[in-house]
Amino acid sequence: MSLRVYNTLTHKLETFQPLEEGKVRMYVCGPTVYNYVHIGNARVFVFFDVVRRYLQDKGYDVTYVQNFTDVDDKLIQRAQEENTTVQEMAERYINAYFEDMDAIGVKRADIHPRATEHIAEMQEGIERLIEKGYAYAVEGDVYYRALHKNDYGKLSHQSLEELKAGARVEVNERKETPLDFALWKSAKSGEIAWESPWGKGRPGWHIECSAMSKKYLGDTLDIHAGGTDLCFPHHENEIAQSEAWTGKPFARYWLHNGYINMGNEKMSKSRGNIATVHDLRKKFEPRALRYFLLSAHYRNPIAFSHETIQQMESGLERIDTAVINLRHRMKSALDGGVEADVVAALASLSQRFTAEMDDDFNTANAISVLHDWAGLANEVLSRPTVSRSTLEELLDWMKQRGADILGLVDLAEEEDLDVTVESLIQERQQARAKRDFARADVIRDQLQEMGIILEDTPQGVRWRRK
In this entry, which stretches build a coiled coil (predicted)? Predict the structure, then answer.
């Protein structure tokens, strides 16, 4: 089965075929850096991190670009409120973004362009759009003629009447039509600004991504992605201006993830009902946040609650425990080949995992395959004897899928217990051998207070950290 993706542009599941064989050009809209990233924003970055990882696992050479919007009305307003500069504000929250994303396992993009570093490219695009009749300047502002492109609205699948009725536009008599949008904004007193052929000002939001994606990925992208809230107007306007600029299709596949709901409402900064990754990762295992964000199909909405994150922690613990126990058992495992039934079981799990991921990146079902792997691992661990090769095969399977693709499983080498803990475990074993179970229980409780959980099995004592 080939990889199929749901293309917002066509409203269809399509077989994925990049423009150039073996290469993928992928652009994901990044954050506007005036605050910490909330868990709704993080869904974009976690999910498309997995998309990139999976494409690489399938052998594609992926160039992944994710921008920072570091000049914007919100940034300017927030900087004024805090009596700081837009540059300082942006730098602070870009650093915070990386700290949060590192914590939840999001790998850095190949390129993280900033809008303020690409003003020349944006001005070049605006000049070209004016020359071709798609844009017009008025009193220091430049607007794009939305109705000049006869397929405007093709991404959001709305008629012009629907777009006009639904567009939230401020009253602006300088626009030729209400749907026209700003490519360049004239400077207000005290605002950050750049020189331009139309006077001092700054770029509009939409032209940023068109200019940066063109510079780093070319005229036509394979994948352009972001949250569903960006479909209109941001991505719609990107298509319009980019295709008018280059005369070529802008992106082959458009992917949009669903909202996260807080109660009955969409989570958003404007509603003030947000939960930031910065705060949540202090309360919960960061991988549990990632698990939560991948626990539903990416196009479906997902409901957030602290109780749900706690459930994700429990789900991770089951898999982590199987991994730890496999590592522990390897210390006493025998030499020998991989058991045939385990080879067959892993092959079946592999087939299922690939089928789910090839079906429009169904991470929810792929995670369920990880839990079936944990069941297999526990069954193997219950056997009186097992070969080291079998255990290694089980761990390698989980590394490729649970760690390298989904980024959920921690396969760091097992820590050496410090001398005190090691001594207590040995003392407990001696107490049990002497049938001094009262002393053995005291030591178990003492270890538990230290964060060490012991499990007595027919194959010996297993341990794990809380």
Answer: 414-441
- What Cα–Cα distance (Å) separates residue 418 from each residue in 200, 356, 450, 452? 64, 42, 11, 11
- 120-135 average pLDDT score: 98
How many Cβ atoms are within 10 Å of 108's Cβ, its own excluded? 12
Q: Which residues fall within 8 angstroms of residue 92, CB to CB, at 6 or more apart?
A: none
The reply to whether 221 and 277 lie within a common domain is yes
Same domain, 274 and 318: no
How many domains does the chain contain in total? 3
Average pLDDT, integer, range 244-268: 91
231 is an annotated ligand-binding site residue: no
**374 & 245 share domain:** no
CB atoms within 10 A of CB 61: 12
pLDDT of residue 73: 92
User: Within a 13 Å sphere around the CA of 379, how many CA atoms are in the beta-carbon half?
Assistant: 11
Would you call 202 helix, strand, or coil by DSSP? strand
- 317 marked among binding-site residues: no
Give the per-residue pLDDT at 27: 98
Amino acid identity of 193? A
Residue 439 CB neighbour total at 10 angstroms: 15
In whole angstroms, give the CA distance from residue 124 to residue 102: 35
Average pLDDT over all residues of the chain: 92
Region 329-354: what's the mean pLDDT?
94
Query: Which of 280, 302, 324 is the last residue before a domain boundary?
Result: 302
Are residues 340 and 292 both part of a single domain? Answer: no
What's the first-to-final CA gap in the chain, in angstroms?
Answer: 40
Q: Are residues 330 and 392 in the same domain?
A: yes
Expressed as residue numbers, the domain containing 446 is: 419-465
Q: Does the annotation place 11 within a ligand binding site?
A: no
The strand pairing partners of 251, in sequence order, are 221
